[in-house]
Amino acid sequence: MEAAGAIDDRRIKQSFILATLISTIAGTFTTGVNLFDRVGEARRQRRQRKMDRGQNRRIKELEQRLDEAVKSKSEVEERQNSRNRNQREGDEEDLRDSLRRGGPLVQGQYDQLYSRMGPQFAQGDLLAQTQLQGQIITLQGTVIKMLEEALYTGEPPDMRKLYNASEFAREGSMRALRDQYQRLLQSAPIDRALPAPGPGPAPSYRSNRSQSRPIAPVRRTSSTPSLRDYYNTSDYDTSYRPTTTHTRARGTRGTGGSVAHSHHSHSHSQSHSHSRSPSLHSSNGIPKQLTYHNSIYCQYATYLQQSGQPLDSSLASSGVCPDCHAHLFDPVEVVQRGPWRVDKEVVTHNERTGQEDVEYRSYLLTTRFFVKCHRGGGGFACYLCSKYRERDTVCKREESLVDHVGEKHSIGEYAEDGDVRDVTR
Hints:
Largest sheet: 4 strands, antiparallel
Distance between the termini: 50 Å
Radius of gyration: 26 Å
Mean pLDDT: 70
Order of helices and strands: HHHHHHHEEEHEHHEEHEHEHHE
Number of helices: 14
């Protein structure tokens, strides 16, 4: 009997391996927030003691009547220290926000996919288990260890390294869940529409901007339009002719440095305005002057952004940009794989019941969206950031752009872009 009970316990544990790993990751993020707050409190106490000692020193120095040269030097140093302090406080706020959001976002992604796939998803395959264990090692070996050392030694930690590790662990965990979800879909015996979210656990993190994560590329099902539905021959343009030179109006960049969103994307500060001015056109209809955030895009991408024209006909068969000649996609692979889909959780307050209503909406990112986001030097830049944000976001890979669009942009911004299509059933 005892042996049978032990076997049953083992089976139960194996049935929820993924759930256990996700719980560990979420708990580690929470531990990171608590440690970070303790480090900040200890630093504030040390700063206060130093300030008290400094005030006593200032009194003595005033009694000794410091000369003007010493005073001038002190003022310069104080201004520099103030600038450094402001930068450090900004980095600290970024880190705390990353740690605070990490656990709920990962747990919410798991709950959402579990509600769609059921116990099979909770068990997880070996690849997902290994990937999630790697993220736990990253969190505990880098974030927790560095914060504990800062708490015990009193030395300020490397905020940028901590921030990148936190972002990497969160993005990696959520990607592992989405990839497993995709593998389970592809191994299903029949094509079927995804079920609506059931009564399973609800996401524990909700935002009024409804920024849940995307679900990676999806299979075409009977209820999801295929790429052939979207990209028939009428979707392509035969009139585009690339320019002989790639002269672009360069935007003026601000003095701020880039901030890493993750290990594969970063943002650049922009100091110029978002307003669009009429562009000048050459005889073949291609803008001579690109009017906003243009220096990061390929010229053909900016042409698509400003003209609203369909894709060049050569892209249908080659997937190669007619202007910068970058290979953007494999047409056969795109048709077989299906479009990228972004799922968003929309939370509204029901005045009648006083409860929160949760709705899941689905959006497809069309091929035209990726083409108008590509850069001449390779990679992508987010067109939605160029339109709605003060900073541009640059991503090395298509998957990174999907992650960014799913997390950082709202359904209101999707609705304004004709290349992001609402396919909510």
